[in-house]
Amino acid sequence: MARPRLRISDRVGDRLLLSATGLASAIAVLLLVLIAWQVFKGSGTAFHKFGFGFLTGTTWKPNFNQYGAGTLLFGTFVTGVFALFLAAPIGIAIGLYLSLMAPPRVRAIIGPVVEMLAAIPSVIIGFWGILVLAPFLVKHAEPQLHSTVGFIPLFGLPQTNGASMFAAGLILTIMVIPIVASISRDLFDTVPRELQEGASALGATRWEMIRGVMLPTTASGLAATSFLGLGRALGEAIAVTQVIGAGTKINTSLYETGDTLASRLANQFQNATDQLQTSSLFYLGALLLIIGLGSNLLAQWIGRRFAVQKAHA
Amino acid sequence: MTILDPEFDPIMEPSRPAAPARSAGERYRIQTVDRPARTASHGQPTPTTPVVRESVFKVEQLAISYGSKTAVQGVTMGIDRNRITAIIGPSGCGKTTFLRSLNRMHDGIPGLRVDGHIYYHGHDLYGSGVDRVEVRRRIGMVFQKPNPFPKSIYDNVAWAPRNLGLRSGLDDRVEKALRGAALWDEVKDRLKDSALGLSGGQQQRLCIARAIAIEPDVLLLDEPASALDPIATASIEELVRTLKAKFTIVIVTHNMQQAARLADRTAFFGLDNERIGTLIEYDETDKIFTNPADTRTEDYVTGRFV
Ligand SMILES: Nc1ncnc2c1ncn2[C@@H]1O[C@H](COP(=O)(O)OP(=O)(O)OP(=O)(O)O)[C@@H](O)[C@H]1O
Ligand SMILES: [Mg+2]
Predict the structure, then answer these.
(1) Does the interface ipTM go beyond 0.90?
(2) CATH number of the CATH domain containing A105
(3) Among A3, A267, B143, B197, which is least packed by CB within 10 angstroms?
(4) Looking at the CA of B106, which ligand is closest?
(5) Is there a contact between A204 and B15 if contact means CB atoms under 8 Å apart?
(6) Is residue A39 part of a domain?
(7) For chain B, what is the radius of gyration of the CA atoms?
(8) Sign of CA dihedral A255, A257, A260, A262
């Protein structure tokens, strides 16, 4: 008699679990759809007025009812790519060090510290950026770079106060590194010990082992991680606002001010004066949403595509 | 008797000389392939005329500990060139631990300590200035569980030669290694396929091919057939027997028949009265299996071990 009763309660528990988890997932999906819908609806007026010309327009003059996202798309792209190209190799190197080379005690200290870096509120990183990093850059790093690689237009003449796309890119790099580092460390930890030993038993140096075994077996994960980091960089608003200088022009030199979608949005939404400005800001939000979801989907796609390839290769 | 040019010290040499990598690889190959001593040690020993054999390894009072736990101690033995030496013994008596010390696979394991001496062709394997990468290049290892890389069959075999800069004639080298591992006929039409698609026995032979592709001097095999079915096991055994002509082989096995069938000499490891692994008896395989000197060996080989 006792057994069937137990079974029934088990079954009820199972159902409960199923509906609770199912509900949570449904809410997540619903939320995503709802937010997207709101954002797209909000941008209706601006879309009606500017159409896709909004993407290439480079003027943003609330007083003249003129809005375009070109400068902001450019700034978002430049700072995001800058951060990705710097943060991915550094983060992967940290991951390799922690997973393969660090003595256990060092690993036990550095690992959590790197993760804590990700926990620093972005407003504080931005604060540090404007007080410490930007002045340092403009006084020391930028002149140095300009005099050595100044023939590359990216490294033009240093400007006065240090607020620049360069500073913003570096701030984003700092924010992306911990993400890439901790995920890539976990990825490297999943590479079977037997494979590593198999490589070293063949007289491979550590670098040969890393290049021939560790990186290829984790390549898809590393790429996906990098795009996840890129998504984070593209969406970051506060810290970027603090150091990028709210520029209004497209400049080739990284030392000039600029602005990003997220930063402009955060900067102006509170003080939007009329419906068209609000709607234009929503339009920026919609673009940001598309780019963010896009990079996320790309990350997932890379992860899946290469996982499939590996199984079939 | 030494086979090595006295001018050339393979282990003390820096692993990556400034000279082009290929010349290093070619020199390496010459050193390990041309073996004037090979035929000399090939004659069948007869009871009346003891053959003086060349030792590849001389192990003296070896003790290995993981932190405060000693896994093996008091091991003193020589390992003959171009013969098969089997290591048998109950689980946990330190066979794997011992085998891995022969090519310094323990390096980098935290807390691990190796005391005593291992001489490889007269060189102290753990002496200062010995490059462990070079050691492993000459002393290959095949593990209990097949561990092919998630690459193509071809790339699995070609990977280590490429690292050594042996790029010319790579196809021939891969073919030779696969033939050497008795795998060529089975895979020659799908060299570009993933190695992970092979059966367990094929994967293990691929791992052997991978190891012999860089023409090592010694092959260390840790229970290479324990994860395989009887047919795959038989083919591995057959393969090991043919490899003896070219390589010195040390094989750990749990399978007593396998040791009796394959090995020229057999080392029996057991636990001493401190319950630490040690070498109990080491002799010609015939002697170990028919007329062992130690009762513990006798108990073990006759299945009376508890
Ligand atoms: N990484 C390690 N850390 C601590 N102790 C270890 C480690 N590896 C092995 N040992 C210990 O060393 C002793 C010998 O282990 P080893 O693996 O060499 O035995 P074995 O003879 O190969 O056994 P088996 O026949 O089961 O493979 C055992 O007591 C084992 O618990
Ligand atoms: Mg073992």
Answers:
(1) no
(2) 1.10.3720.10
(3) A3
(4) 1
(5) no
(6) no
(7) 19
(8) positive
